[in-house]
Amino acid sequence: MRKVAIAAGLMGAACMAWPVSANDSVTNIIKDPKQWGIQTGDYFNQRYSKLDEITKDNVKKLQVAWTFSTGVLRGHEGSPLVIGNMMYLHTPFPNNVFALDLDQGGKIVWKYEPKQDPSVIPVMCCDTVNRGLAYADGIIFLHQADTTLVALDAKSGEKKWSVVNGDPKKGETNTATVLPVKDKVIVGISGGEFGVQGHVTAYNIKDGKMVWRGYSMGPDDQTLIDPKETMELGKPVGENSSLKTWEGDQWKTGGGSTWGWYSYDAKLNLIYYGTGNPSTWNPKQRPGDNKWSMTIFARDPDTGKAKWVYQMTPHDEWDYDGINEMILSDQEIDGKKRPILTHFDRNGFGYTLDRATGELLVAEKYDPVVNWATKVDMDKSSKTYGRPLVVAKYSTEQNGEDVNSQGICPAALGTKDQQPAAYSPETELFYVPTNHVCMDYEPFRVSYTAGQPYVGATLSMYPAPNSHGGMGNFIAWDGKKGKIVWSNKEQFSVWSGALATAGGVVFYGTLEGYLKAVDAKTGKELYKFKTPSGIIGNVMTYEHKGKQYVAILSGIGGWAGIGLAAGLTNSTDGLGAVGGYAALSNYTALGGQLTVFALPSS
């Protein structure tokens, strides 16, 4: 493993002389709002569309234009892509891919059906979801559940190459999309609940050969961290900064998986992503800060070298994965235009950082019920600068093993899970789907066996007490001030990715199955339509033959809907989610459908 990482780093170093640019095919599509060529809308992860045919004045007239059944049940995350006149659609396991001709009413041009071993299903945490396809240079990329990365010819569906990114027998699986950058495709890994050593890998787009791999924890030659040049909060991290925060060889099964979203700044030539929870969920078994789990990474996509890191939740005691998206924008702060990164972490804090340097600018709670920490210390002269100040009552570490710590907010699924927020450069607001959920958490001792769950905690989840009674909110957030501008209450968690548009409308979906449209400035609900199943997919938009369309996948599942998706009934199953979301069965059922909306023809 060590030799592979060193060799991969050297291979990446040879690329440093290449000119700094994004992938031209992806960039050209991103510039054209008629298309939707990347899951996050653009490299900045803003999920904003310049299309404006649908406005806050006419959105109430939206109608279903057409639908498509995927033929697969369980959780449908992600969204379709639209490249020219073609739509590319994916499913949960077995990860089928459809190419649909929009000029011919969605006719299936080709279909790819992977042959995967179903034994991967029980190794996947929190449902058999997949967050979607990627496109670059005439290739559709699919990262399958079994970690096989497949490159398909966009016109024919023919497999051009494939490479295996991990080993399900060790607990390594995939639920995420990938990010094409320049001549590479950036790929993560899932498996934090199985004690994997998380990593990010770059493969050549042309032939699938590995260029570099950077691990989340381990020695510097594996993490691709330079002890003198990689910074955290303005200071070099020092030699083997990860190893010093783990006991013995625990880092080898330390988690820190990378199953979230990736963003890219071509000017700075940096990719950004977050790492997940440390393994096990029992904090008593892994003393130390457990770096670099729960961390924002800024890496050079050519070499994999880490420029800066910031650990949000040192020595995580609550399973607050740090994998949520990094949204990039340029905003004026204290009278100066700055390149910033905004991140809504599972731990309940909304962070704003300078994305060039990693300087921490804002860290505030984006749900008032967050109670496990009083605040993040923003005093640069303090020994705890940048760290959350933990409340002893809610510390599962301090309370100890086999003790049920009650009333912790948020629950392990976070104030927001992976469902991506949106940002509007017009309002300079972020639109955030959130969970309003708390938990009881009881850690217990567990031993590691490769390929077996390595969790070590029992959880129960429920709506935040003494609140509005529901389990979710959809909010508008001012990232410069760290303040909620408006908040819409929801009965269940909002598990859908948001979409902001130039028409002044923001879209999102609900677990009951509603597509909703709200006013970007006020949050006023303007439209809703109930689709056949609960929505955990991400809203997207495109234009075809002069008409704007809005599309959403519905199919209940994911962590919140795992009870329905997998037929679980024990309240503590699904890592604690089944009991909390038991009432969902009264509102929706399994499904798998794409629903496309448009304004009526005049």
What does this structure look like?
It is a single chain. By secondary structure, the chain is mainly β. 6% of the residues lie in helices and 35% in strands. The strands form eleven sheets. The chain has a five-stranded mixed beta sheet, with no helix packed on it. Strands 2-40-39-38 form a four-stranded antiparallel beta sheet, with no helix packed on it. The longest helix has 12 residues, at 2-13. The model is unreliable at 1-20 (pLDDT under 50).
Structure, briefly:
The protein is globular, with a radius of gyration of 22 Å. It has six helices and 40 strands. Helices cover 6% and strands 35% of the residues.
What are the key terms here?
about 35% strand; disordered N terminus; globular; four-stranded antiparallel beta sheet; about 600 residues; mainly beta
SSE diagram, text form:
Layout: H1 2-13, H2 24-31, E1 48-49, E2 63-69, E3 81-83, E4 86-90, E5 97-101, E6 107-112, E7 134-136, E8 139-143, E9 148-153, E10 159-164, E11 179-181, E12 184-187, E13 199-204, E14 210-215, H3 220-223, E15 231-232, E16 235-236, E17 263-265, E18 270-274, E19 295-299, E20 306-311, E21 326-333, E22 336-344, E23 349-354, E24 360-365, E25 373-376, E26 388-390, H4 396-399, E27 405-408, E28 422-424, E29 429-435, E30 437-443, E31 457-463, E32 472-478, E33 483-490, E34 499-501, E35 505-509, E36 514-519, E37 525-530, E38 540-544, E39 547-554, H5 562-566, H6 577-580, E40 593-598
Parallel strand pairs: 1-34
Antiparallel strand pairs: 2-40, 3-4, 4-5, 5-6, 7-8, 8-9, 9-10, 11-12, 12-13, 13-14, 15-16, 17-18, 18-19, 19-20, 21-22, 22-23, 23-24, 25-26, 27-30, 28-29, 29-32, 30-31, 32-33, 34-35, 35-36, 36-37, 38-39, 39-40
